[in-house]
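Input/output pair, single chain:
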Amino acid sequence: MRPSEPMAAEPLKIVEVIAHPLSQTLPAPTVTSWGSYTKVSLVLVEVRTDAGIVGVGETLARFSPKAYADLIETSLKPRLVGQDARNIGALWQSMRRALSGKAGGMLIEAIAGVDIALWDILGKATGQPIAKLLGGVGRDRIDVYAAAVNWTDDKAADAELDRYLGEGFPCIKIKMARPVRDACKRIERLRKRAGDLVGLCVDANWAYTLDEAVEVGRALSANGYFWFEEPLQPENEQGYEELRRRCDVPLAAGESNFTLDQAQRLIANRTLSVLQPDVARAGGITETRRMADYAAAHDIRYAPHIGMSGIVCETASVHLAAAMPNFGMMECECDASPFKTTLADIAPGCRRQKNGTLDVPDRPGLGIEIDWEAVKKLKAE
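Output:
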């Protein structure tokens, strides 16, 4: 008697896609070379299926969240409703064709929110956390670093550094900007304050010209900093290559990249030592995984960017970090904003970390449940 063949699984049809534009005032300003951020936004994406399984994702939409929500509901939703939620790759390609032109901008960020929600659905449908679905390498904890010491006066910077040291972080990020002379002084002073056993890195948020970046980079190298993040505009790939030749500090970048093709050059020629895509910008889990895999093939570390995002972005990043073989460290944003503290039944990483390590959620999908009352309170007006 022939063994019975397994029955084909019933499609898990998408019946609704809802984009929730959210906005909040930060408890304290985030100050970088771009200026002082006091208010920030995002879009929480909700995807519902006919089986009653609901997935959630996050779109990086720091400003104009209603515009992102409209794009999702008018241009992406029609390509999703009625489709099998498990066909994530096919749905990603369909959403990509919603607009023509080079990949990037609002479209890819909008896709990111949907894509994360689809992975959440797949995990819930199979009873597996996303890290396992990604072919996890066995990590149940990941390393994180504190972000960040803001570009403020010396007294405030000292207080922030001391706070992170007191919370047990072995590695800390410091924001840098102009003037270069002041930046170099701070690099040296905070190294002395932290001591030689604490890992320090710098994020410049595109603050410098090439020659300025060389000067700052040499100060970082002289003081044992472990990377120099986004010193130049992301489009200036030739500048990054020249900077790599002119200073020794490892270079990190990638949070400004939307798709793999935008990261390929600096990975392939090993200008970067660390790749930092943001899952809520870089097309979600699907495209971010492609970036991380490509970096792994070139022996370059993957270090997820989080920034001023919310708990969904942070949790999706934890799952990617747990699964990628070339993972190094993940940013642990310590602003304790409502996007991280009130939206779900899990505390933000800055509150859960112990001595610079963070547990990976082990429940199906993302492993979080959204507080929909909190979503209502944070709705963008």
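Residues 1-8 have pLDDT under 50 and may be disordered. The longest strand covers residues 14-32.
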